[in-house]
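Dear support,

Our group has been running a series of protein-ligand predictions, and this particular one with LLP is the one our PI (initials K.S.) wants archived with full inputs and outputs. We had some confusion internally about which version of the output was final, so please treat the block below as the authoritative record. The input we submitted was:
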Amino acid sequence: MATDTSLSLAFPLASRLNERGRLEVGGCDTIELAREFGTPAYVVAEDDLRARARAFVQAGRDGGHGDFHVVFASKAFPCAAVLELFAREGLWCDAASGGELHLALRAGFAPERIVLHGNAKSEAELRMALRHRVGLIVIDNFDEIGRLERLVGEGALADLGPQPVLVRVTPDVRGETHEKISTGQADSKFGFSMADAPAAIARVQEVDGLSLQGVHAHIGSQLLSLDPFRREVAELAGLGDFPVWDIGGGLGVQYVDEQPSPPPIEEYVSAIVAAAHANGLAERRLMVEPGRSLCANAAVTLYTVESVKQNVSRWVAVDGGMSDNLRPMLYGAVYQAQVADRFGGSTRCVLAGKHCESGDVIVREAVLDDPRPGDVIVTPATGAYGHAMASNYNGVPRPPVVFCRDGDARVVVRRESFEDLAARDVV
Ligand code: LLP
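Confirmed final output from the archive:
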């Protein structure tokens, strides 16, 4: 058993190994959580979410940039409890669809603090955003300008006055990340090319019902170096003089100890503020849209080992997998795992999920302490894009989300039931 009780940065700030050698998250013993709420379960250190939101906001202040706003990319963890928490912390919300817009409004985000994104927004989604007068609609393409022009001319919507908008560009700045989550390159489905950007800006400025506030870019996700962000700001600054500059999200997080460490939130924000000031944007509104860096490390997933076998490798199979964490399968994402009450150990094994696919592996090269059926396994850094991308594949009900704080645990998303699996069937 590990004697060192300091945990990897991948774990929540509010977590530790207790006197019994068990992982505690938000003051709650994970073995007891597994017993009480079942597994798999997403366990969130509520105070972590808060601390990271405050770190972003404070970093803007410390950087001397008064007009700095933090927009939670709700796609990372779209559940009411998380949204409400960030709304109360004064963040804005990035909604990438009508559904996310609905959830954001329902969670109490003021419409003027919501940013609507999307490269294929439907007329219904645009209408919904206009009707609620969201803070910003981020325009992605010429078709959308035409559609918005028509909609803002309609009687009831025209009466609401001009809708504030941004123009999204793809600045041809690549960060180092998985191809599937790289978005800043010239050949991208997102936003206007730099070549088209001036025409897009001019075209938006011609529409009476739209009020162009500025530009937006999002160059990619899980970025571990700050340079691409600096280059992004410099590229955007060349587009003109606007009141609002939205730099997007993308700050990476710690998943495993072997990876490069992500820059701390403070460094990321101060790099963006410095780049903005260096490019003449000191007096302008700056916005960032973190998703992953606000919530990934705030949560762990608990599983129970169901079987252990030796087929060349040692295969340790748990009661979840690609239905609660699609990231290994989709991006080859790496995670670490531990037995929740026996950290450390030296048993090399493959931590596999329960789904009917060989690719359903959670950790390819796990090292655990002699895992046995019944053991509770914990994988940290599952707060972002885990619950968000969960599915019912193989008829597996999606896990609950449990918020933990000062030793108290409460379910904020209940586990799905078997009946839920048939709830939409029309017989
Ligand atoms: N803003 C925009 C316009 C975005 O498209 C995204 C993420 C964000 C902000 C937030 O980025 P973040 O700070 O979380 O990196 N499912 C993938 C991640 C996809 C990110 C899509 N857009 C994953 O699990 O890695």
